[in-house]
Design brief:
Helices cover 28% and strands 26% of the residues. The relative contact order is 0.10. It has 16 helices and 31 strands.
Length: 560
């Protein structure tokens, strides 16, 4: 059997290695248009920032080492320009010499990845404007940083790569400004989870302009002027474009292979395209989302590697292993904070019209009495009819990854909020609490399902507080004196039973405390004393203040 694989990074390299491990006699060819295969593209920003010192650490395998271990014919600088599916032939151009030739196949695997989006912004081809997608891009940026010693940079786009680049440039002393057209960084997350990241930009003295798109780039001597829709002009030594990526489907389209609704290559549950004996994996494919069932894309290394293993088995042993799709579990380090999401967010569920409720938990990374505990925020979304967990998001300093992994595993296994309640975690005071924050999220959700309290997001609370409502602050008088929501009446939760006659029964009661727990206790007291229209601020005042604060950090740097 002769396998030809187009693209030699995550999905393509994994498919090739698995094929060899289960079929020693197969002929396997990798055609890669670039100079590298199997490199760690997720580590590229950290090499630029000097966290990863050795460039060779990024190259998981070289063509020579991969061939030595797996006996695979690896042809770098080899771009496939056409596919003839009827005769099972691909046309290949050697990018260095321009020479062309044809190669036959029995089974063809497409792993073209994704390409960086470069919209037609005037001046986008100006000098010192870079994208970061591969090792070649990295080498250009690293050489510029090392040789030119830039003082300032603008990062356009605040997704995962954009924020990681901002952090790493800041780490090496570059003054960074991030520009994002939407209202928040990490637009795949809900606003309450992104808000702490925005405030962290202020702590790090990093500029952040939200809801402000780039109109044009203008070279100005050694500098580049970034002109924004707000009429601001930011001058910088260089610019990193991180506007997003799109599936690389040019070759598939030209071969008449079906393209899906989201612009990715359509594949079936066995990862076969619309053409027999042509398969596809990685960033370029479209597949139904496990929760919504809607076509979706996943620009993530984890799913690509898993797809490669499944596909190799299907091609050798027959179509037996089904790919179940990705729930989009992703995490990023943003300066000292860590933020991640899995499944569908509140705004994603709302856009799809899927019934759900959400709750926010403010909790410590480990037991509060053990030194060094740091706050984290967990938000989960779930089906209020059956408790099925639909999504989770976490932001904090320590322990974010393990909580996100627990949520992701529960969602992937079709679990519920009741499963969160029962998760048995490794507990000792330095590592967690007896009731882990993930357990607590499950408890909160169950209380909502049982009607014990009605949660309000910060935005809902703000809107209702401006109406004919009674806003009740149940913190201590000392806490209240340090700052409160305008118009709130302070009755400490421990004294609430003695002041019930001071609370109106003909108004909506909006309760809040610092983190949400005391508000819940107050809501239970009031509900059981004849107050029906009672709401609790999800996540408490801390989340509210972060969400309602100015989100941009209006600092930008100009070189004189």
């Amino acid at each position: 059997m002769k396998y030809v694989i187009i693209g030699g990074v995550a999905g393509g390299a994994t498919t090739a290695a698995r094929l060899r491990r289960i079929d020693e006699n197969a002929e396997i060819i990798i055609l890669e248009k670039g100079p590298h295969i199997s490199y760690a593209n997720c580590g590229l920003p950290y090499y630029i920032g000097g966290i990863i010192k050795d460039r060779n650490k990024l190259l998981v395998q070289t063509p020579e080492s991969f061939n030595a271990r797996f006996n695979i014919d690896i042809r770098i600088h080899s771009e496939v320009t056409a596919i003839n599916s009827e005769h099972k032939i691909v046309e290949v151009r050697k990018t260095q010499s321009g020479e062309t030739y044809t190669e036959t196949y029995d089974k063809l695997i497409l792993s073209p990845g994704a390409s960086a989006i470069k919209p037609p912004i005037p001046g986008i081809t100006s000098p010192n404007i870079f994208t970061l997608r591969n090792v070649k891009d990295t080498d250009k940026i690293k050489a510029f940083v090392d040789d030119e010693h830039p003082r300032t940079a603008v990062v356009v786009g605040a997704g995962f790569i954009g924020l990681e680049m901002a952090e790493n440039l800041h780490h090496i002393g570059v003054k960074v400004t991030v520009v994002e057209a939407s209202s928040q960084v990490m637009n795949m997350m809900d606003s309450e989870i992104a808000a702490p990241l925005h405030q962290h930009f202020k702590e790090k003295n990093v500029g952040l302009f939200l809801e402000d798109a780039v109109k044009k780039f203008v070279p100005n001597g050694a500098l580049t002027e970034v002109h924004l829709a707000s009429e601001r002009v930011i001058k910088a030594d260089f610019v990193i474009l991180s506007i997003g990526v799109k599936p690389d489907t040019f070759l598939a389209k030209s071969a008449g292979i079906k393209i899906g609704e989201t612009g990715g290559i359509w594949v079936d549950e066995y990862l076969q395209t619309s053409k027999e004996d042509i398969y596809a994996v990685g960033d370029a494919i479209e597949f139904p989302h496990p929760i919504s069932g809607k076509p979706s894309l996943a620009f993530l290394a984890g799913p690509a590697n898993k797809q490669g293993r499944i596909l190799a088995d299907n091609m050798v042993f027959g179509h037996k292993r089904k790919y179940e799709g990705s729930i989009g579990t992703a995490i990023a380090k943003v300066f000292d904070l860590t933020a991640g999401s899995t499944g569908l967010t509140h705004k994603g569920l709302k856009a799809l019209g899927l019934k759900h409720e959400s709750t926010i938990v403010n909790a410590g990374s480990h037991a509060g009495y053990y030194p060094g505990a740091k706050q984290m925020i967990i938000k989960i979304s779930f089906n209020p009819d059956n408790g099925k967990l639909l999504g989770g998001q976490v932001v904090g300093y320590d322990g974010v990854d393990k909580r996100l992994d627990l949520l992701a595993t529960t969602i992937k296994n079709g679990g519920t909020i009741y499963d969160l309640e029962e998760i048995e975690h490794a507990y000792a005071p330095p590592f967690s609490s007896a009731k882990d924050p993930v357990n607590q999220a499950g408890f909160n959700a169950e209380n909502i399902m049982n009607g014990f309290f009605k949660p309000l997001s910060p935005f809902q609370f703000k809107r209702l507080s401006l109406e004919d409502s009674f806003v009740l602050d149940v913190r201590t008088p000392k806490e209240y004196a340090l700052g409160a929501i305008v118009g709130a009446v302070n009755i400490e939760v421990d004294a609430l039973r003695n002041h019930l006659n001071e609370i109106p029964k003909n108004k909506k009661l909006l309760i809040y405390c610092a983190a949400g727990l005391r508000g819940y206790i107050a809501a239970r007291i009031l509900r059981q004393n004849g107050f029906d229209d009672v709401y609790n601020l999800s996540g408490g005042l801390k989340v509210y203040n972060q969400t309602m604060a100015e989100q941009s950090n209006a600092i930008f740097y100009e070189v004189n």
